[in-house]
Design a protein that fits this description.
589 residues, alpha+beta, 47% helix, 17% strand, disordered N terminus
Length: 589
């Protein structure tokens, strides 16, 4: 290994030195992997279309052979086109005798160094990495007398990327605390200026330094039809003009380079770290990286993935236990299945339900308002349209449940039509309403006390965009943290009636299985401690439901979830048998 360190006219120099939920992320993992693998095998086995008869069917192949030794040169330059091979300041890395497409200890080389940026780079200037490979003993410079065009090849890659400047935080302390008053005034003034000049001032871009450069030589010796290479491979093929064959493919691998690892460049930055690596990569792995990145772009274009979510998904693979991740990916498939089955059985239960005896009607109403609060909160925080659509559909379903649990009537007696809710007879004329009112009364006191305390805490110690945003965020936090209290009235009704025959057990079983899967995600995915604890709260409620099902015997006289009693079913069966016997007797006579 050899490193060249010197001061260049452009201001660059190097120095060698030694070499680091919500809920639902499991579904994203399986969806992206499934799409990527599907696309890869389609492109691999189906292949390109057959060329027309008048098109050449000549085959092109790799100019190099497996195991050939290569020399490598890496230059850093502020110019996109490079030909200054004699500059010692531009050359930062030189390696010899690298075996091509061979996996051993000698095929991977690494180097860590420091780069000292010039004034131009500090002021949003560009810098490029120019990497050249040649057969051992041959130079990369076309002006060298020993240069052979078929023996050397190279590629250029930007080391600086440009990203939009993040918007100013519009949140502020609504109480105007003295500690934050100065910062709040500054941010409020900046936000007002941004809003006033948003249409006139162009978007500001900031340059970021890529601290890691991974150079992969793709192990590809396939033969392709000339001018008809697969569309996912053709952009990366480096064709030699005279022979029509292609050089080994150079791939700058940035798949694991996360955005939070990028370093912002400004006038105060005097040195930048740079970790270099050259290593082979298999054709399958290379195509998998490309397809996953492409699937990320498709998800972002359709609004199903926000900026930064791809990095969070990659972070799960980087920092998570591989065995636990494998189990999570498998279990996430079951999570999707159980989610669908729970949704199906929930709709089926309320669609066929004829009696509200033993069911808490007030919990249905409260669930609708909780779902509405979450929807408004997501709308206020500019969430992707797919999540908004899912939450909106959930709101509509919860409102539909109210229509099944209660009578909804339009009151047109006044100037403005109003909705009136009236209890069903099966709910109001038995003990269910009495127990439901009693349970909801005391639980409302508890929930109101917790909501007020949390809202005061949030108002005092947290920042918000507006009073409306504070109200929504406080209510949403209460729904997430204390929403399980809304399930307690049903437990109280079960206890007083000594029966659980009226509950939709099939739907609850699927939800309980999903809760167990969420417990697994709580250990795998990085999340706040309060949210992690909120996952386990539902386990306690479901365990109490299971305990009640075990201690309360089945009462055949009580109506089931569809409004029918066991004795009614038995009498109807006996009557049907009697009518069948009478019909047979008439036929014999």
């Amino acid at each position: 290994m050899e490193a060249t360190a010197a001061a260049a006219a452009g201001g660059g120099a190097v120095e060698g030195r030694p070499q680091q939920q919500q809920q639902g992320i499991g579904q994203m993992v399986t969806g992206i992997i499934r799409v990527a693998v599907f696309w890869y095998f389609i492109s691999k086995f189906v292949g390109p279309k057959r060329p027309p008869p008048n098109q050449s069917t000549q085959q092109i192949s790799n100019l190099f052979h497996k195991g050939e030794t290569l020399d490598m040169w890496l230059y850093l330059s502020e110019k996109e086109k490079f030909n200054d091979f004699g500059s010692e300041g531009a050359l930062v890395w030189h390696e010899t005798n690298i075996p091509y497409a061979v996996w051993n200890a000698d095929s991977t080389r690494t180097l860590s160094l420091k780069y000292y940026p010039s004034e131009a780079v500090k002021n949003n200037g560009s810098i490029f990495a120019h990497v050249f490979f040649a057969r051992s003993g041959y130079p990369p410079d076309p002006r060298d007398p020993e240069y052979q065009p078929l023996a050397a090849f190279g590629w250029t890659h930007p080391v600086v990327t440009y990203l939009k400047k993040s918007k100013n935080d519009k949140r502020k302390s609504l109480l105007g605390n003295t500690e934050d008053s100065i910062d709040d005034k500054k941010t409020s003034e900046e936000s007002k200026d941004d809003q006033a000049d948003e249409k006139d001032i162009p978007v500001e871009w900031i340059s970021y330094w890529k601290p890691n450069i991974t150079i992969n030589l793709v192990d590809d010796f396939s033969r392709y039809t000339q001018n008809a290479a697969p569309p996912n491979i053709a952009p990366y093929l480096n064709i030699e003009p005279s022979s029509g064959n292609y050089y080994p493919t150079i791939f700058f691998n940035e798949f694991w380079l996360l955005r939070d690892k990028l370093i912002a460049i400004n006038e105060t930055v005097n040195e930048l770290p740079l970790n270099l690596e050259v290593t082979p990569i298999s054709m399958t792995k290379w195509q998998l990286f490309l397809q996953i990145d492409q699937s990320f772009q498709i998800h972002r274009s359709y609004g199903s993935m926000l900026e930064g979510e791809a990095d969070e998904l990659k972070r799960v693979f980087l920092e998570g236990n591989p065995y636990l991740l494998g189990v999570t990916m498998i279990v996430s498939v079951f999570h999707s299945i159980f989610d669908f089955l729970a949704f199906k059985n929930d709709i089926q239960f309320w669609n066929k339900n004829k009696s509200m005896e033993g069911l808490s009607a007030k919990s249905v109403v409260v669930n609708f308002f909780c779902q509405l609060i979450v929807f408004l909160y997501l709308l206020d925080n500019e969430t992707s349209w797919m999540i908004l659509a899912s939450s909106g559909i959930g709101c509509c379903i919860e409102f539909w449940k109210i229509g099944k649990a209660m009578h909804i009537e339009f009151d047109r007696s006044g100037m403005i039509p109003k909705l009136r809710f009236r209890d069903r007879d099966s709910y109001a004329k038995n003990k269910t309403k009495e127990y439901d009112d009693l349970a909801m009364k005391y639980l409302t006191y508890v929930l109101l006390f917790l909501a007020v305390c949390f809202s005061i805490y949030s108002l005092k110690y947290e920042r918000h965009k507006s009073w409306y945003s504070w109200i929504l965020s406080s209510l949403t936090s209460c729904v997430y943290m204390f929403g399980f209290i809304m399930m307690c009235p049903q437990l109280f009704i079960n206890y007083k009636l000594k029966s659980v025959a009226h509950l939709p057990w099939r739907q609850m079983t699927y939800k309980f299985l999903n809760t167990i899967i969420d417990d697994l995600f709580a250990f795998v995915i990085k999340m706040p401690m309060l949210h992690r604890l909120s996952v386990f709260r539902d386990d306690v409620i479901f365990l109490i439901y299971l305990y009640q099902r075990w201690i309360y015997p089945v009462d055949k006289k009580r109506v089931n979830e569809f409004g029918f009693g066991g004795e009614e079913d038995q009498s109807s069966d006996n009557q049907k048998q009697l009518t069948d016997l009478q019909a047979e007797e008439k036929k014999t006579n």
